[in-house]
Amino acid sequence: MKDCKRSHTGKGGSVATMHEVAQRAGVSIATVSFVVNDSKPVAPATRARVEAAMKELGYHRNSVGRALARGRTYIIALLYPALQHSFSRTAVRFFTSAAAQARERGYNLVLWPISNEAEQVTELTSTGLVDGVLLMEVQLDDSRVGELERGKTPFALIGRTQDTAGIAFVDIDFETTIESAIDHLMKLGHTNFALVDGGYGSDALSGYGPVARSRSAFGEVTTQRGLSSVMLTCDENPDAGREIAAELVADHAETTAVLVMNELAAPGIVAGVKNVGIAIPDDMSIISVGSSADMASMADPQLTLMTSPSTELGRSGVDAVIDRIENPLNPLPQALIPCTFTAGRSVARVRSSS
Amino acid sequence: MKDCKRSHTGKGGSVATMHEVAQRAGVSIATVSFVVNDSKPVAPATRARVEAAMKELGYHRNSVGRALARGRTYIIALLYPALQHSFSRTAVRFFTSAAAQARERGYNLVLWPISNEAEQVTELTSTGLVDGVLLMEVQLDDSRVGELERGKTPFALIGRTQDTAGIAFVDIDFETTIESAIDHLMKLGHTNFALVDGGYGSDALSGYGPVARSRSAFGEVTTQRGLSSVMLTCDENPDAGREIAAELVADHAETTAVLVMNELAAPGIVAGVKNVGIAIPDDMSIISVGSSADMASMADPQLTLMTSPSTELGRSGVDAVIDRIENPLNPLPQALIPCTFTAGRSVARVRSSS
DNA sequence: TGCCTGTAGTAAAGCGCTTAACTCTTCGTC
DNA sequence: GACGAAGAGTTAAGCGCTTTACTACAGGCA
């Protein structure tokens, strides 16, 4: 008597609906919903009938209908400005673990490509398509964050803005990481340090959190420990690494310990240094900071590194957004996770000569 | 008289709805829809009133409601088994261009992480959350493809299965690519070739299209041209490259020209070859096939390469799915795009000695 | 017997939007 | 001046699902 236009079950275009299942099982549509979601007790016999009907019709719940009714899509968008930055191995690992954790908690984590325009963020969040947002590659002063704060979509950052008050985030603990790297090298007798970081565009440079934070940490620690130090910057590619290596060797010949905070340039730096006759690790030790083992072994010799805690970042990042979504009143999740030391072949005791 | 529970406009949680806009503008909700979608003529005065109301209320259309009513989400999922494979620079470029093209055509392209399980594919498509699917990293015999064919969600492949009948796809033209690479090296006098490809797991090896196709192309062309040839395989990482390089040099000393179809191992191969005292490109020429310039320059010297047509693949891939979605009756889009030659420093004329 | 409680299931009101069908006006035309 | 067409809006029926009442019925207890 109702709904007759598409009762031709089976093929015919659209998929089976809850209505059809209900009809077939001889129950009300609500009961089907209760079975599907296990949201209310249903007598075993009835449940069995419903389940049979579902199987026969090949029923799958329609997420859009559900989303509309519940006011929740269970989709979390991971915003990654792929256009501007390369998708490092580190990021992949991060993404993977984030997705797994989201799935675990009943959400879908999808990578949503948007340019860096703040307005695109609004465009995404204001349409109610996603329940929450995870923002990567955050700048110290990031317009997208402002945009998100203005909206009502729950979000969390991977990385931090300058002022983290009122913002949920998960980031690498650069201070601790840099300090351990330096400590490691000091124990091997090094006293002349250099830091090479990534440009990340040109002027936005000082605005990139990891760079800014590592620099200040590097500055502080070397000063405290009375070490000689120099800081250099180059673009995020091997060729830039080659160039900066030449510069480093030419202008700062005393350097024996280098922290590279630029995964992509690191192999180039190694190549560049070797090309001017300096042996690694015999004459110079290099540690790649915040990198992944795969990338580090692109270099020859394989780089010793402080491995980025990508997996943990992914997991806690997702937890942070979901927490914001589900318990907006909870204290803000804010976490810092240090990189861990991974041995390679690019670090050695300083030469006793000199 | 109707809808009173949430007429408290402004803050208070949810966003403005079409209803509220209609009320405020003193028109029917349908009219608002016509304005928003420009789907029916509306008198200028009315339109103005509606637009004013929208602005005042900060209205943004709700995608979920729209999706439900239209039966379309305008979301396309790019399925990339990130868990198993690394996300190469090539893939990033692909992703970026695909996203841009989708946006251009009014769709959202999102990267949807799923494991390689075919069932997860169904789980995604059957819920009606996405209008179409773009599948990457396709195996010659891929269960996910079967799963997609069984469902009714439009899809296209980046890559190909063995049997491409009835399937929309876009892939690299490996035959042409391999042939040009060989031609290039032949013109420089090389006659002893080797192909090193990527393992891509262990047993699935022969099932990976790019590998299988390059191999057969390599085999055919070298035979045709009467060249000596050998094929090797190694995992997709630099260390594996180092090892296979040693093997290559030890067991096939005559080789002077190497095609590497394994972006990630390539830098390792270069390092490995050099480590046993063979100069590149003087003693041995290497071309990295289907790679990206960034990755190629990780090696020292920078690799000459056949650049993967990532951008084109992304664009045409998206076009292919959208075509399937919007004109299911059109002829199936099937396209092959060759890689293009990009000079590096790893290729030279063969030594006249020998 | 009557009343309360608990359990299984149903009816129906939305969620926010689209769209086919319909109602009024207002013109143009013969 | 009457009729039809075109233009501008409105009504209302969904899209597929969730969820809050509410009904029915059985059992427990006095």
Task: Outline the fold blueprint.
The structure is a homodimer of 354-residue chains.
Chain A: H1 18-25, H2 29-37, H3 44-57, H4 63-70, E1 75-79, H5 89-104, E2 108-112, H6 118-125, E3 132-135, H7 143-150, E4 155-158, E5 169-172, H8 174-187, E6 192-198, H9 209-225, E7 228-234, H10 238-251, E8 257-261, H11 266-275, E9 285-291, H12 293-296, E10 304-307, H13 310-326, E11 334-337, E12 340-342
Parallel strand pairs in A: 1-2, 1-3, 3-4, 4-5, 5-11, 6-7, 6-8, 8-9, 9-10
Antiparallel strand pairs in A: 10-12
Helix pairs in contact in A: 1-2, 1-3, 5-13, 6-7, 8-9, 10-11
The structure holds a DNA duplex (30 and 30 nucleotides).
State the shape of chain A.
elongated
Poorly predicted sequence stretches spanning 5 or more consecutive residues of chain A: 1-12, 201-205
Order of strands across the main sheet of chain A: 2-1-3-4-5-11
Report Rg of chain A: 27 Å
Fold and architecture overview:
Chain A is of the alpha/beta class and 354 residues long. Chain A has 13 helices and twelve strands. Chain A has helices at residues 18-25, 29-37, 44-57, 63-70, 89-104, 118-125, 143-150, 174-187, 209-225, 238-251, 266-275, 293-296, 310-326; strands at residues 75-79, 108-112, 132-135, 155-158, 169-172, 192-198, 228-234, 257-261, 285-291, 304-307, 334-337, 340-342. In chain A, the strands form two sheets. A six-stranded parallel β-sheet of chain A has the order 2-1-3-4-5-11, sandwiched between helices. Chain A is elongated, with a radius of gyration of 27 Å. The relative contact order of chain A is 0.12. Mean pLDDT of chain A is 89; it is low at 1-12 and 201-205. At the A-B interface, helix 4, helix 5, strand 2 and helix 11 of A face helix 4, helix 5, strand 2 and helix 11 of B. Chain A binds a DNA duplex (30 and 30 nucleotides) through residues 17-19, 27-34, 36-37, 39-43, 46, 61-62, 64-71, 128.
